[in-house]
Amino acid sequence: MLPSSLLFGFTALIAYIAGLATVLLAIAVFGQRFIKNVKWIADPNGWFKKVLGIVFILVGLAIMTGYDKQIESAILDAGFINTASFEQSIVDRIELPE
After folding, report:
1. Could you report the per-residue pLDDT of 46-88, keeping only the tens digit for each?
2. How many Å is the maximal CA-CA distance in the chain?
3. Residue 96: which pLDDT band, with cuts at 50, 70 and 90?
4. What are the tens digits of pLDDT across the range 8-49?
5. Can you give the pTM of this predicted structure?
6. Contact status, residue 42 vs residue 33, Cβ threshold 8 Å
7. Using CA atoms, how far apart are residues 19 and 13, in angstroms rounded to an integer?
8. Whole-Å CA distances, 38 to 30, 54, 88
9. Is residue 52 within 8 Å of residue 45, measured between CB atoms?
10. What angle do CA 72, 84, 93 make, to 5 degrees?
């Protein structure tokens, strides 16, 4: 997507970089503290890694068979996540430079 002006594109790029750098810094600072507090996550033979492995296998099988799209459609049709109105509310709030 091309920006409407060079200044807007540069500003958006700087904002993206600043946000990404902030998140990466937070992960670097707080990640080690978090892992030290929850050692059961870091245990390679623990139940958490086994459950996570099973979840990854199930997600992979769902993607392979196309069942993930049916689940996503069912969630959207049920109205749990109304992304269209959320996106429209954001677009309505933002005034793009002309």
Report:
1. 898 999 999 999 999 999 999 999 998 888 888 777 777 888 8
2. 57
3. low
4. 888 989 999 999 999 999 999 888 888 788 888 778 888 989
5. 0.48
6. no
7. 10
8. 12, 21, 40
9. no
10. 145
Distance CA 49, CA 81 (A): 29
CB distance 30 to 36 below 8 Å: no
How many Å apart are CA 94 and CA 12, to the nearest integer? 13
d(CA 94, CA 98): 12
What are the start-end ranges of the E strands in the chain?
Answer: none
Across 25-38, b (16+ Cβ under 10 Å) vs e yields: eeeeeeeeeeeeee
Residue ranges per structural domain of the chain:
1-37, 41-98
Compute φ and ψ for 4, nearest 5 degrees: -75, -25
pLDDT, greater one: 8 or 95: 8
